[in-house]
Every structure is written in structure tokens, then in C-alpha cells.
Amino acid sequence: MWVERRMGLETCRRVARGAMVLAGCLVFACSATIRRPADGEPVPEGHFHWPADGRISSLFGPRGNANHDGIDIAAAEGTPVHCAAQGVVLYSGVLRGYGRTVIVGHGYGLSSVYAHNREVFVRTGARVRRGSVIASVGSTGRVTGPNLHFEIRRENVALDPLQYLPSRAPAVIAGKRPLTMGG
Ligand SMILES: [Zn+2]
After folding, report:
1. Which has the closest alpha carbon to 113: 62, 72, 77, 65?
2. What is the CA(70)–ligand 1 centre distance, in A?
3. pTM higher than 0.70, yes or no?
4. 99-130 per-position pLDDT tens digit
5. What is the mean pLDDT of residues 17-28?
6. Ligand 1 center to residue 39 CA distance, Å?
7. How far does residue 127's CA lie from ligand 1's centre (Å)?
8. Which of 23, 122, 142, 182 is packed most tightly, with the most Cβ within 10 A?
9. Ligand 1 mean position to 136 CA, how many Å?
């Protein structure tokens, strides 16, 4: 399947960079090629909505000698996680570091990733709409507290979600703070 196909190469690259991911465990997600949004095709305007209410506790971008491939939205355990756009569930299960994770494909080569969930409510292959509750916020995987780790990808390239989500009150953006990989 989609995730597995990408696993070998990505894991190798990750290990070569000296990171903490063990060979064979994970996750396309840790090792995506990072590219500025301007380098990619534009994401259709209004395509994505916010997946959860909460405070942004970590932004997309370099973190230590790795890259934080998404944003973290800190919220209480059990807070609903909404699908950011309509699509089909490509993966629902546990990924090392990411804990209980849902990956949704949206067409246009786009996908979104929802990690560290307490519970997931959708199965691989399910059709989901924007706003559907697909999971609840938790602290599974490698985290320091309950949060939703949210990614937007195009052809497995991690994009900065803030470039594609509707603008939001700056008060919720707490800025970067150090978190362990996958937090
Ligand atoms: Zn994160």
C-alpha cells in the first residue's frame, strides 16, 4: 500500500541522517523531502479546514537536525479531530512515533496526516468529508503531552500547513518550542 511502498527508501535516508527512527519501523512521514510551498503546485484555495481547536504548540520547520513535518495543535485528551478536507482514508492504524494515526488522501496528490490520537474512528478505505470527526486528540506515540500532529503533503512532500489553512487568530500561535521528534 501507499505507506509501505515508500517505507524502505525513506527509512534508509532517515537512519543515514542519524535520527532516532529505527530501521524498518516507520514512517514515510519523518523523512519527507522538504520543499517550500512556492516550489509546488498550489493547493486549491479553501481546500483545507482546521482539524482541531487548540493552541499551536509547534510550527512546521527545522527542529534540531530534523524537520518538523507538520504543526502540533495542543488540546485536551478527547478533543474531536476533524478531517481537514474530503477524501478517502489511506491508512488508519499505529505508526512508530506517530501513535494512532489517520492518513487521508484528497486527490491532486494531496494527503493529510493526523497523529497521536487517543482513538481513531475510521478505517482504511472509508470515505470522509471535510469536518467529519475521524479521531480524538490523545498522546499516543512520541509526545510530551496530548496534541494533534497535523501534516499536509503533496506527493509525500511535507508542506507548511499554515500556508494552506484559513488564517486564524495569532493568539493561538504560541511559537516554536522544543519537542521530541514526532511530537
Ligand atoms: Zn508534531
Report:
1. 72
2. 6
3. yes
4. 999 999 999 899 999 999 999 999 999 999 99
5. 28
6. 23
7. 25
8. 182
9. 15
